Amino acid sequence: MKSSGRSVDDTPLRVRLASLPHAACVIDAEGRVLASNAKARRTFRRRGEALGDRPITDFIPDIAVRDLIDASSIPGSKRRELHGVWPDGTRFPLGIRFARIRYRQTNALLLTLTDLTRRKLLEANERDSRYGFRQLAQAFPQILWTCHPDGSAEYFGPQWITFTGAALEEQLGRGWFRHVHEEHRAALERDWSAAVAAVQTLKTEFQVRHHEGHYHWFEATLVPVRDREHTLVRWIGIMNDIHEARLNRMALIEERDRFAKLVASAPGAIYSFRLRPDGSAHFPLASVGIKDLVGLTEEELQADAAPNSDRIHADDQARINRSIAESARTLVPWRNEWRVRHPEKGEIWVEAHAVPTREPDGGTLWYGLMIDVTQRKHAEEELRRSQARLQAAVMASGIGTYIWDAVSGRLWWDDVLLKLFDRTREEIEQGGIEGAAQFVQPEDRALVFKSMIPVREGKIDTINVEYRSLRHDGELQWVAATGRVDRDAQGQITRMTGACMDITARKRAEEAQRNSQKIEALGTLAGGIAHDFNNLLLAIAGNARLAMDELNAAHPARRNIEEIETAGARASDLVHRILAFSHQSEPRRAIIELKPTVEEALRLLRATLPAMIKIQSRFSADTPPVNADSTQIHQIIMNLVTNSAHAIGDDGGTIAVEIDRVHAGNGSLDIPGDIAPGVHARIRVADTGCGMDRGTLDRIFDPFFTTKPVGQGTGLGLSVVHGIVRSHEGAITVESEPDRGSMFSVYLPASTRPVDRVETPVTTVERGRGQRVMYVDDEDALVYLLTRTLQRLGYEVVGFNDPGQALQAFQENPAGFDVIVTDVAMPGMSGFHLARALLDVRADIPIVMTSGYVRPQDREAAQKIGVRDLILKPDTLEELGRTLEQLFRQHQSS
């Protein structure tokens, strides 16, 4: 062996070998051991045995000394891993580092020996560990991965490779970051670097791109791994695909948000109520609306429900507790309503619905909704009252309902309808619709059948008809019937429902209204006739007065003229009575004597009743005065006498009218017991007519009740009499038997005050002083009469029978007249139009009007336009003289 190594003496070599920290020996070129240290002997387990002068192959069988010598002379690794042999023949891994040296003037090799048994064992263990980790990574459902201490990836489980579609080599280091969503990449790299620098666990979420292009959410956890010396050796991580869970979690959050908004906006309160096994209760859940319902917050109710129970009305608590216990026992859904004593709202009504479930500990949990139903309860109460009123009104109005099944022919009536027609249910069920048609008055059946024709033809679906029906008791009544039909697909009638109502009172009222309108028309006619009569009477009486003034006291014609004046006065009185009878006015009471009013009414009746009816009268001198309206007393006499005349009929008879004095409370049998004790004036009207039976007597004073044929009576006369008597705090009785006549007795309380008397002052009419008067009337006779009369009284008079000519004359000379006297009713231009036209010309001209029929509205209209007075004919002569005198006296004083 060529020497090129270091030269080492024998003694120093041994010393140096002993000082080395590792096992070492020196061999020559033939492989013989020249020297060794104790560590080498221990390595080969040869503690008491020298290694020198023995071939190195005894200790390292597979060593190639020549190869080592050759390798020592060239650059490169000077290491080898071989196997050593222990004395028992066991081979062990041995690491050799070699270098050429010079020993005793020859070339030699210095071998540094390392027992690799432990290291090889550790390496084997690590290989096994890595193999097991990767097998686990392949079987593990999550993605396992490892990183070097600097955080660069060194391994990913196959699931990651499959998901990303990239090779493992591309993922190592930080290459895997390119698969992270760009929105999350920067934050992930920042958090990753911070965790590696701080050597702390990292847990984060981010999106990773699938090899098909879509992204999934992953949750990554990275944990540092240290050895026994706490040195960081690697990072182990796990990644979970949480995409579905993340989406579900976000959906759950959104659903919770929507639920929270729904709960917040829902009326009332969403709640859960728990009944514990020990009987106590609380509200685990209650939305904010609970405070509006019970006056308590959700926090106050979560621990204990007792405060809520205290708010329940005392009358409702037992019922609510029973219902809760029953729902807990049966697990049947719970619903109830009760009153709450709210601290701010007072008493309110709430309603709750809840579904129970049994809990593991034996308790019961309800989930439900609670709402304020105060308005609904009030509405229901009002509806109940309204329905009660409606039912009472229906019962009172006599409205009955019916249902007719056209298919089966069955007819059903309610109790009201049965009572209305005075029939039994058996009659209706047996007779059907044909039997019910027989209840219609024969004269009206054609009308009823005719009303059904358009319904049968399908033109309309409703019927409205009015007809008469005869009850079992013989009473004829009016009925209004309505109905509506249902049809099948072919348009055939299957059913009719409707109602019937007794309209007898309405029909009688309509008849009474027609009679009232006739009376009103008669009054209007009487007024018109009175106007014409008064004009004639004024002309007759006035001219008679003028003729009397021109005759001396012994003239034979004076007697004839006096008779004319007397007849004219009676005619005038008769006209006044007609007007008083037809005039409608408010009652005006006064203390009056009955005799004059009764006599006046009898005089008018004698002129209207048939000659075969005789009227007898008797007036007791001690009849007391009464506080009454004379017009209404007049009406009592007219109605009672007229009723008696109708009872007598065409055969003739007698009507006896008398007034006298009676004293109530003295045991008299003919005085009704419901009048106050004391003195009364009595009016009796007896007749020899047909009389009445008990049934008629019981209803004689009912409105619209009449025994007369249709069109001959309203049934109002005696009802009006009864009302007038009652309004005067009096009473009325009737005694009658069939064929024995009738007697009506009216009792009016006597007055203790004296009779109200109106004294008419007697005045003389002063003469005029040449004042200029324009007189306008369409009757030539009255123009002639009034012109002469006023001229005799000292006035200058210009008369016109045409209001247009009178207006023209006034317009030509407004100052030529001191007063205008005009009639009201004139053709072409009324007195009112003339007065307005005259006042437009001269506003201060005094105007006086005359009329044969003065209505209240006429006086009002005259006052509005500025007329000074309105005088009733035929009182014009005297009244006009006094009116003119007063007008000119006022003008002179002003």
Automatic annotation (TrEMBL):
GO molecular function: phosphorelay sensor kinase activity
Enzymatic reactions: ATP + protein L-histidine = ADP + protein N-phospho-L-histidine
EC number, as in UniProt: 2.7.13.3
Domain named PAC: residues: 202-254, 334-385, 463-515
PROSITE patterns attached to this UniProt entry: HIS_KIN (PS50109), PAC (PS50113), RESPONSE_REGULATORY (PS50110)
Keywords linked to the UniProt accession: Kinase, Phosphoprotein, Transferase
EC category: transferase
PTM-bearing positions, type 4-aspartylphosphate: 823
Domain (Histidine kinase) ranges: 528-752
Response regulatory domain mapped to chain residues: 772-888
Record protein name field: histidine kinase
Organism whose genome encodes this protein: Povalibacter uvarum
